[in-house]
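As described in the Methods, two query proteins were run sequentially through the folding procedure within a single session, without resetting any intermediate state between them. The first query and its resulting structure tokens are shown here.
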Amino acid sequence: MASVKTYNSRLVTVALGTHSVTGFADDSFITVEPLGDGVTSKSGCDGEVARAVDPNEQYSVKITLLQTSSSNAFLQAQYNADKTNGDGAFPILIKDLKGNFVFSADAAWVVKPPSRAYGKETNNREWELQTGQATVNEGTY
């Protein structure tokens, strides 16, 4: 018998240092992507294959927030601190409490502030962070 699994976006949490992120966008709101090449390979003229494991364990994390989210001010303040005196780094923890996905890094920082659009309706802000060495534990889905 096939099992049924349930995803609940309310059970995805993000902590940036002691700040708990709130005000996520209404669609995709977190993207986690490795910055390294993973495992690459080359094939020689005689067909021999050589593989290389990239040691880069850095990640890019994109967090999309509502225009009205108070987390925008936190991220802007961290960016400003980094530009002023280099003190804008913070630990990051992302957890899917239902699916058991866990992403963490001891150091993350804001790459640059997001573009800002204003109109009749509210808009989203996409923040790009980068991390130092990070760990990823995949969950059940």
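Immediately afterward, the second query was submitted; its sequence and tokens are:
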Amino acid sequence: MSELIVENVSFAYEKENVIKDIQMELHDHELVSLLGSSGGGKTTLFHVISGLNQPQKGRVLLDGEDITGQPGHVSYMLQKDLLLPYRTIEDNVILPMLIRGENKKEAREKAGKFFEEFGLEGTQKKYPRQLSGGMRQRAALLRTYMFSKNVALLDEPFSALDTLTKHDMHSWYLNVMDKIRMSTLFITHDIEEAILLSDRIYLLTGKPGRITEEIVIKEPKPRREDFHLTKEFLEYKKKILEKL
């Protein structure tokens, strides 16, 4: 069980405020999306939450512990899969464990238990070039999970995929999240993607970026196949477009 709290966080580059007074929460087993325009501070906020940047003000709490400016407590996956082409899928997945000083054989054994769960059984000895885009993203997500099994920060992980593959990945990720009980904070520019996946959506707008709205998606998950065609879906989309 994990709870992430971002408490009144502000961050500036060279005295120019990028994000200001950010207050947000991620509860156990939630998927929460962060929506906003390009350059609005979403990635900067992720850098603060992951401990890569130290905020000028505020703090980040994980299960009550102050982790501000301390990398290694939450996992962070960028838009590109960043799999190393000269390593097998198995050895790409265990990289976080090797960095922590774990034995390679033991790391392979630990990661091996999750290949079937992530739909990657049979890919262990293959190389990234031998997998489709969707399968590479699955491998990258498994690597992210092996870094931290509680909270994941995903920065537009499905944006490079074609529409059909993205739809399949959405269903797959929600199913995997449910099985492994991972909590996810998710950056996207895709309003429909945010509505389909999220329990809640935060809107980050303005310069400096501030949280200006929190939208709760009441439709239970997994969402029905035709949810994107319903009146409720269109009302959520209209509300978000009005606020952005």
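The longest strand covers residues 16-26. We note this only descriptively and draw no conclusion about the first query from it.
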